[in-house]
Amino acid sequence: MSARVRDITERSFQFATRIVRLVNSLPRTVAGGVIARQVMRAGTSVGANVEEAQAASSKKEFARRMEIAQSEAREVLYWLRIVAECGLVPKSRVADLLREADELVRIITTIAKRSRGR
Question: Any idea which fold 3-117 has?
Fold first, then answer.
């Protein structure tokens, strides 16, 4: 496994653990509950799909899993923006997660594009 793959695997795992902690801090309201489920599902799915890509049996399967991870990373970025803008938690609490989600989208997009091109 290359250093780049280890990096994105570890980063997406650490991102998921931070998402779990964030979700546990969201308010127990109707909106908080709905958004919490969306954030949890998409935020933990990024790393799960990166992990699945590592076990892919073909380059095509690897690329597809990375495309799914990319899609989930974009989705969680969307939900995190809602969390921040609606004041469900202080913006400072989600600022680093927003930056990391954006970086994950960019990195995974590059990996997906390069794997399709090979």
Answer: de novo design (two linked rop proteins) (1.20.1440)
